[in-house]
Amino acid sequence: MRVATNIAVLGTQWGDEGKGKIVDMLTPHFAAVARYQGGHNAGHTVYVRGQKFVLHLIPSGILHPGVTCVIGNGVVIDPQALFREIDELAKLGISVEGRLLISEKAHIILPYHRELDVLSEARRGERKIGTTSRGIGPAYEDKIGRRGIRVCDLLGDREALAQEVRENVHARNQIIKDSTLDWQPVFRQMVEHGERMRKWVGDVSVFIAGLMARGDRVLFEGAQATLLDIDHGTYPFVTSSSASVGGVCTGLGVPPRAIGGVLGVAKAYTTRVGEGPLPTELEGALADRLRESGQEYGASTGRPRRCGWFDAVVVRYSARINGLDGLALTKLDVLDGLKEVPICVGYSTSSGPITEFPADLRLLAAATPIYETMPGWSAPTKGVTRFEALPLEAQRYVRKLEQITGVPCSIISTGSDREETIVAPGSVVERWLAYA
Ligand code: IMP
Model-level pTM? Predict the structure, then answer.
């Protein structure tokens, strides 16, 4: 019997690890790509016939004909953002018809959730999160507060929807002082959105179970990353969903045994957008050097990313939380030409050195990284497709990361093109794909 391996591809740091390229590269081996959390706060950059395209909500699998793209119940959907993306894809000649499935249980980002996001940030003042201002947090708040509006609500009983919208708008009017939003235009808009969405809506859990029963494979696509996970990330400086592997089960309605393997994507250094501690953060010329050669500007918001050295404490922590089988190490080429490349192997704190990622952010914020410094390399790694062809120092750097994080590098990305990639012979990725 053919055993089909479904795999999860997720971020191991603070997002923007380059998951888009890795998912894009693996997609031809899968029948479906399924997003399990987050919303249009994500930004996956892909290239369509040389043209740069940023996907926010629809899985990047959409660029591969024949692959079904699934938006799970764990995702929050801003219908306007969704339609915008669908229309832009259509302009590029890519149709989503018959290839998009949206969970009827996914929650809706209402027009005023954006406003509440901005307001909540303003009220936090110094302690602001640095959100993407897309209304993600407030939409998840309504979900957990059991007053959220789901995709199926837009398609069902109009009276019930009217009541839900009325109550939600009333709750919102109580939060925003001196503001009296009328619920009726919101209701009408929701009905319209529902009608446009209707043909794509269905039961995601049933669909995935059907694929699996036929021996077809699904790629579970994570957005944001483990250190932004609501439970395991640097709380409160996190996003509001389960970005780590647990989110696959709750966000799609699949059992744990459906996940045959987990690939963690890690940048060869570290970046972060938004607020919150980043122990290996660099300032000045070195930070600029990484930011410019890595083009470290947010795909969704254009914000410059904070940059630092590779933090092995973080990636080892991610490996444990997610049970990583392999790493996809990205942007190795950005480190080309550096004299030396430090790796953070632990933190020095007021209560002594630690090597496990702490829950207490105050401790983390005051921690000083303990570095092991590796020699850099001057020959380029850019575009290299075989491990042995990498400069020796780059090989040693990769081996060191594997040793400290305890996870083998199954994929090494040496540039943004699909071809600029090393797939380690005999790695888990090769084994997973061998079933294709
Ligand atoms: P929110 O998801 O908009 O609520 O933002 C919460 C935190 O997650 C902020 O620090 C954002 O910068 C960060 N964040 C959200 N989405 C992404 C992403 O796709 N990449 C990197 N950071 C993100």
Answer: 0.96
